[in-house]
Predict the structure.
Amino acid sequence: MTHSTSVHPTTVAAQHPYVLERAFNTFDAEVVDRLYEADALFVPRPGQPTTGPGRIPAHRDFLALRVPIRVTPRHTYVSGDLALLIVDWVVEGRAAHGGQVRIAGTATDVARRGPDGFWRYVVDNPFGTTEDPEQTGRPTEVGPAAANSFDFSAMPSSISSCEPPC
C-alpha cells in the first residue's frame, strides 16, 4: 500500500485528528512529527512521555506495524489558540510481521494554533486516562533525557493484542 507523504497541517482544530490520520497512514515518522510543536509532548505508552527528538523514534516504533489508523473525534473544545481534542482511534489489521494487531484508545490531546494559523500538537496522549501498571501515583516529568520509545510488550493487555508471530 502506497501513501502520499504530502500531508499539511490544518487551520481548523476539529480537522486536526483527520490530518494526523493521513500523516500516520504514510507510515513516515517525520511526516507525523510535522504536526507537533518542537517541544510537544507525546505519550506513546501510558506513563511514558517523550518530547523533542524522542518523538521520532517513538513514532517509528508504532508505525513499524504498517497498519493504518482510523480516528473518530468525540469532542473538540477551542479556547482562543488552544484546543482540547478527545478522539477515539484504532489501529487494526495484519501487521508487517504477519500477525493480527489491534491497538485502540481514546486520546486526550491539546493542540495550539501557531502564528501561521495552523494547529499542531502540544500534548498527544493517545491512551488518555489508561493507567500505566507501573505508575506509582507520582507525577511524570519529561525532558530530552527522558525520551522513551514505544514498547508494545509493556502495554497493558487491555489495549493491545497481537497474534503470533509478534
User: Anything to note?
Assistant: Helices lie at 16-24, 29-33, 55-63. Confidence is low (pLDDT under 50) at residues 135-166. Residues 25 and 68 are 5 Å apart (CA to CA).
